[in-house]
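Re: Re: ligand-bound prediction request (bumping)

Still looking for help on this. To restate: I need the protein modeled with zinc ion bound, output as structure tokens. Inputs repeated here so nobody has to scroll up.
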Amino acid sequence: MLRGTTIFKCDNCKKKFKGLDIEYNCTSLSNPQKCPYCGSFHTMPSESETFYRSTYETIWKRMDKSGEHEVTCFYEQSKLTESIDECNEWNEQNEESKAAEEEYSERSSKDKLSFLD
Ligand SMILES: [Zn+2]
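Reply:
Sorry for the wait, this slipped through. Here it is.
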């Protein structure tokens, strides 16, 4: 399922980028997205780094072994197009506005989490 977009961090070049937030095998994890800067798939949502790093390392190993990086599932076309546009727009921004928006999105995702508790 396509949940929208989220900010990823690349483990290879350490840069952040916005990518599609796609459910990883029906879990709350996000499928790693290709880094637009270096092409690596060793990426994870930057907000997950503290708690899920080892989980993503396992996913990266599995992906490297199978050579499969793309998720096969059905996306609503309009939502997909909208989300890709949002990612491209974000990735073309300068570093300062990226940091500002990331701070904002981290705050709102924390709000979401506390709402779930
Ligand atoms: Zn990268």
